[in-house]
Design a protein that fits this description.
216 residues, 59% helix, rod-shaped, two-stranded antiparallel ribbon
C-alpha cells in the first residue's frame, strides 16, 4: 500500500507561465513522482478500480458483479479504490501548486492525473520554438536603469540564459557578455555624461593647477 506516500511540493520549481523553464520543471517533476512511486499512476497504467456498491438486498457488490462480497472483500475493495484516488490527488496537487492560474484553468477538468499531465505537456511543448524565441528576445532586450538592483538584474539575466540552455539553445559566453554590455549601455552612457559634466564644473570653478584661486 502507498498510504504513507507524501509528495513534497516545496522542493519543486514553479512552471513559468511562458513555459520557458519547462525542461527543468519537467525533469524535477518526473523525478519527484518517480521517487514517490507514482510513475505508473502518472503514465495512466493504473486502471481505476471499481468502487463497491450496496444493492437493494443490503449486500455489497463490485460494479457489474453478480456475487456479493464478504466484509473482508468489501473492505479490501474500498481500500484499493481509496488508494487509487489518493494517488490521483497527490499528483494533481503537485501540478496545481506548480502552475499559474491560467494554466490551471486549462487543465483542471481532465478526468485523470495522467490526462492532466499530458495536457500540460501538450500546452508547453507545442510552443517549444516560440518559447525559445521569446525567451531569447526577453534576454536581449533587458535594460538596466538607474535605481535597479544590479545583482538581482544580472541574476534575472542568468536565469533566462539557464532556461535557454535547458531548452537546447545555449547562449555562449561571448554572446552573453555582449548582451550584458548592451543591457548596461544606458547606465554607462549616463555615467560618462556625468563625468563630463563634473569635469566641466571643475574647469569652470573648481580647483586649478597650483591650487587654483588659492594664493599662498
Amino acid at each position: 500500500m502507498s498510504n504513507s506516500t507524501t509528495v513534497k511540493v516545496v522542493t519543486l520549481p514553479k512552471r513559468k507561465a511562458d513555459g520557458s523553464n519547462w525542461m527543468t520543471y519537467k525533469e524535477r517533476f518526473l523525478n519527484n513522482i518517480t521517487k514517490q512511486g507514482l510513475c505508473a499512476q502518472l503514465a495512466g497504467r493504473k486502471v481505476k478500480p471499481g468502487e463497491p456498491e450496496i444493492h437493494t438486498d443490503g449486500k455489497t457488490y463490485l460494479p457489474s458483479g453478480s456475487k456479493p462480497l464478504s466484509d473482508e472483500e468489501a473492505d479490501a475493495a474500498w481500500e484499493k479504490a481509496d488508494e487509487w484516488a489518493q494517488n490521483e490527488a497527490k499528483i494533481r496537487e503537485v501540478i496545481y501548486e506548480t502552475v499559474d492560474q491560467t494554466t490551471f484553468m486549462q487543465i483542471k477538468n481532465e478526468p485523470t492525473a495522467a490526462k492532466m499531465w499530458q495536457a500540460l505537456a501538450k500546452i508547453t511543448e507545442g510552443r517549444g520554438d516560440t518559447i525559445k524565441v521569446d525567451t531569447l528576445a526577453r534576454l536581449q532586450t533587458m535594460r538596466c536603469t538607474e535605481g535597479d538592483n544590479i545583482p538581482e538584474f544580472i541574476g534575472r539575466m542568468t536565469t533566462l540564459r539557464e532556461d535557454l540552455a535547458a531548452m537546447g539553445s545555449p547562449v555562449e559566453d561571448t554572446q552573453f557578455a555582449s548582451i550584458i554590455r548592451l543591457a548596461f549601455s544606458s547606465l554607462t552612457a549616463e555615467f560618462k555624461s556625468s563625468q563630463v559634466v563634473e569635469s566641466r564644473e571643475l574647469d569652470d570653478g573648481g580647483p586649478r593647477e597650483n591650487g587654483g584661486n588659492f594664493k599662498a
